[in-house]
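Course assignment 3, question 2. Fill in each field.
Student: A.L.
Task: Predict the tertiary structure for the chain below.
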Amino acid sequence: MIHVKNIYDEANWENADGYPKGTLIKTLRDEDGMKTILLKLPAGFNTEAHSHIFNEQHFVLKGEYESEGKLYSEGTYRLIHAHKNHGPFTSKKGAVVLIIWDSIK
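Answer field:
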């Protein structure tokens, strides 16, 4: 099966439960424990450090966020390995981040 979604349209955005108020999510893939999402961080975004059981990839499509004392701006790719604590995350002006969680085999 082929999944096709436009990441730039304004359709299919939802409130991102578990994230700070104003954060939006667009799910692009959710199958067999693997997930691909767009996360729209509002200006003033702030969330605590955490870890995942999956590898996590970030592609900053718009804006920027700060984590672990480093600024990740538009065009940045970041790989965070499973079980690695990462964060806290802040974004002064907001950002759109493509996030991919894949199982580790």
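Instructor remarks: Residues 14-102 form a domain with the Jelly Rolls fold (CATH 2.60.120.10). The CA atoms of residues 65 and 71 lie 6 Å apart.
Grade: pending
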